[in-house]
Design goal:
371 residues, alpha/beta, 5-stranded parallel sheet, binds flavin-adenine dinucleotide
Length: 371
């Protein structure tokens, strides 16, 4: 019996489990490690913050998916990996061995320690859920109303999140004026075309968000009646560096064209936790597109077949939700936004996102176990 160990309930591992549910591989013991049974789909997180979706609507149910694939779901977190001994150390105290390992553990964010006041870090998503639910409960109870929302980070996550949070808080506290500002060290939405940036600036202005680019965050700007969203660039999990696997300067796991960690034929890494050369943006679309290649290559490694290569798409579709029933659609140098096109782009985004979640529902729960 060969042991295939999947670390993380990321977008690519969801596809590995779905592929396994459709076609299990006999003689393989499959196990997935995740801190929770529900894995939020990042593209829908701003919609959940805005109150458009319930939390369960934006999640892939890994318990159901693992059951359909005949896999064991271990609710735990990876703490360390011993590559030579082929052992993973878990936060709950246990250990797991593997014959073939795959990492899809995403990335993290670490706001500076000791910031005063209410700070909402956009990652990890499990902790964001608890923090946001608690804050909403306080607001509903009328405790310490928020009159200012700040955001550090001018990428897609920062923009979408500040618009979503403002829309939700203003709906909850219609009588309470809320000012807002977004601060970013770089430019707004680096990498996106000028037309998309113009549309985004218009949406931020409409929502009353003052935008400061090329500026460092000043902790002294935190207001006691405020809420700070932390949405700076994705960071690698610190333990990744200690694995001895080849990492980029930022600690992301360096992979080859078949998605294997460099020099490690039995270890794969995909999505945000991996470092492609040249670097790819940390966006869910890449983790999603790596999924089918990863599923095929794990199976090929176990059966001694040839591996497929992954080629990142040159122009990814980006759909930014602006929390006003609209979205900004951009691909290559083109962008669609405005009153009518924006509403159409939102319906398009909603259909794509709901469709992605639906792909993992209704897979036969009693598919034969791959043992
Ligand atoms: C608010 C927000 C909005 C975003 N919107 C978009 C968008 O619209 N489009 C887009 O393309 N990108 C978007 N992104 C970026 C996107 O979130 C990431 O690029 C994407 O989630 C990466 O997918 P992944 O599969 O690599 O990892 P994730 O989806 O992050 O999955 C990683 C999994 O690993 C688990 N995990 C973490 N640590 C451990 C551990 N130690 N042990 C075990 N499991 C662990 C996590 O719980 C999680 O289940 C957004 C990001 C944020 C923060």
């Amino acid at each position: 019996m060969k042991r295939l160990l999947l670390l993380g309930a990321g977008h690519a591992h969801a596809q590995v489990l779905a592929a396994w549910a459709r076609a299990p591989l006999p003689g393989v013991q499959l196990c997935v490690v995740s801190p929770g049974a529900l894995a939020p789909y990042s593209g829908m997180v701003p919609g959940w913050l805005a109150g458009t979706y319930r939390f369960d609507e934006i999640c892939i149910d890994f318990a159901a998916l693992a059951a359909a694939a005949g896999a064991e779901l271990l609710i735990d977190e990876v703490q360390a990996i011993d590559i030579a001994a082929r052992q993973v150390q878990l936060a709950g105290g246990g250990q797991r061995g593997w014959d073939l390992l795959s990492l899809n553990v995403g990335s993290t964010l670490v706001p500076p320690a000791g910031l005063p006041g209410r700070v909402l870090s956009l990652r990890p998503l499990g902790r964001l859920r608890a923090a946001w639910d608690e804050l909403l409960a306080q607001q509903a109870a009328g405790a310490a109303p928020i009159s200012h929302v700040g955001c550090v980070g001018g990428g897609a996550a920062g923009v979408e999140s500040i618009l979503a949070v403002l829309a939700r808080l203003r709906a909850l506290q219609p009588a309470q004026p809320i000012s807002a500002q977004l601060v970013t060290r770089g430019s707004l939405l680096p990498g996106l075309p000028p037309a998309a940036v113009r549309g985004t600036r218009a949406a931020l202005q409409q929502a009353g968000v003052a935008v400061h680019t090329g500026q460092d965050f000043d902790p002294a700007s935190i207001r006691p009646d405020g809420l700070l969203l932390w949405a700076t660039g994705a960071l690698a999990h610190p333990w990744q560096r200690d694995t001895g696997l080849a990492t980029s300067d930022g600690g992301f796991l360096r992979i080859d064209a078949t998605l294997r960690c460099l020099g490690q034929p039995q270890v794969f890494a995909v999505g945000d936790c991996a470092a492609w050369s040249p670097p790819l943006p940390k966006a869910g679309v890449y983790a999603v597109r790596m999924g089918p290649v990863l599923a095929a290559n794990l199976r090929a490694t176990l059966t001694g077949q040839a591996l497929r290569t992954y080629a990142p798409q040159r122009r990814a579709l980006v759909l930014l939700a602006t929390a006003d029933g609209r979205a900004i659609a951009t691909r290559g140098g083109a962008a669609l936004h405005g009153p009518w096109l924006g509403r159409w782009a939102w319906r398009w985004k909603d259909r794509i996102d709901r469709g992605f979640i639906a792909r993992f529902q209704g897979l036969a729960p009693d598919a034969p176990a791959p043992r």
